[in-house]
Amino acid sequence: MAALRDSPIGLGSKRQRFAWWPVASYAAPKPFTSHKGWYWLRPVVETSTMSVGRIAYANDNSALRPLSHRTIVAASLVGLATAFAALASAIHPLVISLR
User: Could you tell me which residue, 59 or 78, shows the higher pLDDT?
Assistant: First the structure.
């Protein structure tokens, strides 16, 4: 199985998918790449690479505006706070009934 993962078959192939989780966006000025931001909750085109796996190049997703790191952290914290509140409200009646 490791031989299939390490083989260069499929390198550079592109696929379009919906970014349910944040996907890093990279600009590709030759010969270096630089981090531009994040794509989240939008359809993105990802390219297969050998070192990272699948990344989204800004050139392939020019119609999308990348989000900043601060925006992704804030949205993740809001999601975690919402999940904590839902869990606390579900457990609260059980704790009250134990008294």
Answer: 78
Contact 49, 56 (CB under 8 A): no
Q: In what order do the strands lie in the sheet with 54-57?
A: 14-18, 43-48, 54-57, 23-27, 34-39
More confident residue, 70 or 50: 70
CA-nearest of 77, 19, 8 to 48 is: 8
Which residues fall within 8 angstroms of residue 56, CB to CB, at 6 or more apart? 19, 23, 24, 25, 26, 39, 44, 45, 46, 47
Contact 48, 12 (CB under 8 A): yes
| Degrees to nearest 5, angle at CA 58 with 54 and 61 | 85
Distance (Å, rounded) from C-alpha 98 to C-alpha 76? 33
